[in-house]
Amino acid sequence: MTKNKESLLLINASPRLKGTSVMLLHRIQRVTGGELVHLYQGEITAVLEKMKSAEKIVISGPCYVNSYPSRVVHLLEEAKQSEMGENQKLYGVINGGMPYVHTHKSGIDSLELFAEQCGFTWMGGFVLGGGAMLDGRALEKHLSSKKVVPAFDAFTQHILEGEPSPDVLYTQAQTPPGIVMTHVFARLLSFLVTRKLKKQGLHPSDKYPCVR
Amino acid sequence: MIVFLSDGREQEVGQRLYEEVTTRGVDARYISLEDKDIRPCLGCSSCSGSTFRRCVQKDGMEDVLHSVADCDAWLIITPVHFGGLSSTAKCVQERMVPLGDPRYYVRKGELVKGMGKGSQAFYLVGVKDHCSQKEKEVFHSLHRENVRIMNCPGQAFVVEKQPEEETIRKIVEVLLHDEK
Predict the structure, then answer these.
(1) B104, exposed or middle or buried, with CB in 10 Å at 0-12, 13-18, 19+?
(2) pTM
(3) What value of ipTM does the predicted structure carry?
(4) Do A182 and B106 make contact, defined as CB atoms within 8 angstroms?
(5) How far away is chain A from the Cα of B2, in angstroms, using its nearest Cα?
(6) Residue from the list B54, B93, B135 with its beta carbon closest to the beta carbon of A65
(7) What is the 3 state secondary structure string of B106-158?
């Protein structure tokens, strides 16, 4: 196995600087090295400049309404207008709260389309369901950590070697909770949010704009 | 009422759909997103907790939220960017969280959330010339996930920048048929 010497840029596409998106990038960085930048700190142009000179790029972000946050779309729109993509490899990571791959997959599909339209070489992505509840804690705390940890570490190895990473890596590592657990989750999460609102004298079914 | 949220930077389809709907005497409102100062969601979760149904950011989004809160159906009309919404349209969609039901439900064996009224339909109209089949599929699948998680009805369409009158009429007929 030869060590891949390509320069690597890790982009944290989350407004949170200590959340799950950046935790996953740190996990990659421990193996691959490379520079980590925060998309939500400073101007987008600074990130664009760094993108231009990187041979490998990893974008890791949260899933907002089934895809990457709008600031990522903005970054991609700007990147499309600048000269980049040739001989550059792109990987994507997206994590969301719902414990399903399909809920968050559009983000990765969108990144692949961007790569195709801008001449980047698409290298594959990693969709992590049930990621929000980690809230920045180690991947070992994930509900399906036994399968997810080795899968994500294999994904990291692909980045290190500059190889493509297949979708089966993350699809096979995640099994949705069974029907009983699903009902337990729904009840529990709804109970918690309702209790929190009741303490403020409010109820989840209160209509917008809901003034106290 | 039907609310049209349109990023009109690259398309006039939103305006044409709105005009077709009002010609038929249906109550509607057109909001051009490109003229509004709407900042990105900070992901702070405040609107589903400590400041329930209120966003901590005070900007052009307040007007949009007021309209969508009271509507029967809402549409986002956007240029198709990488199989999804433009950053302007996506930014607005992400800021809709204060209207949502913060509780979880089980539908078809999976966890879902819901929009306040539950029955408000959500339509997505993507505009792009020569859009590849692959990009259209990503766009449609994005909308499928949107209505799945919001637990609401709705449809997605991908049209050319200068669609035939027939195309505009067909979309409007779907909107009005569903509203009944």
Answers:
(1) buried
(2) 0.95
(3) 0.94
(4) yes
(5) 18
(6) B93
(7) EECCEEEEEECCCCCEEEEEEECCCCCHHHHHHHHHHHHHHHHHHCCCCCEEE
